Amino acid sequence: MSRIRVQKVSEQMKKEISDILRTSLKDPRVGFATITRVEVSGDLQHAKVYVSVFGSHDEKEPSVAALSKASGFIRGEVARRLHMRVAPELMFRLDDSGEYSAHIERVLRTIHREEESKVDGD
């Protein structure tokens, strides 16, 4: 399968899965989840769905577990909406990139403040 086709399928899956979570999935364990990206294999058999969940670590794991439980339903909906004979097998993964970026930002601010205080103290 061409790389461009795989990228298009990934983007469409991201949109559709986000819509399914918002409108069709009524599991209270999911919480406030956002699909950040979808990586589809070249043969369109497997897809890693990265999800960011708002809340503490204790709230994130049950949300990802609930999504994994509902993967069959979500897969069927994706196949129906994208008119695919076979939709990729979905594997949900927690995406911590937002938290990591916030941590790096805090570290950089701290370093910047320390450097300013050294300049002002000299």
Describe this protein's structure.
- It is a single chain.
- The protein is built from four helices and three strands.
- It has helices spanning 3-23, 57-69, 71-81, 97-121, and strands at 33-40, 46-53, 89-94.
- It is elongated, with a radius of gyration of 19 Å.
- The protein has one domain (3-96): K homology (KH) domain (GMP Synthetase, Chain A, domain 3, 2-Layer Sandwich), CATH 3.30.300.
- The chain has a three-stranded mixed β-sheet.
- The chain is an alpha+beta fold.
Give the helix/strand layout.
Layout: H1 3-23, E1 33-40, E2 46-53, H2 57-69, H3 71-81, E3 89-94, H4 97-121
Parallel strand pairs: 2-3
Antiparallel strand pairs: 1-2
Helix pairs in contact: 1-3
CATH topology: GMP Synthetase, Chain A, domain 3
Unreliable stretches covering 5 or more consecutive residues = none
Strand order of the largest sheet: 1-2-3
Radius of gyration, taken over Cα atoms and rounded to an integer in Å: 19 Å
Helix content: 55-70%
Task: Name the beta content range.
Answer: 15-25%
Mean pLDDT: 89
CATH architecture: 2-Layer Sandwich
* Count of all domains: 1
Organism: Alicyclobacillus dauci
Family: Belongs to the RbfA family.
Protein name: Ribosome-binding factor A
Subcellular location: Cytoplasm
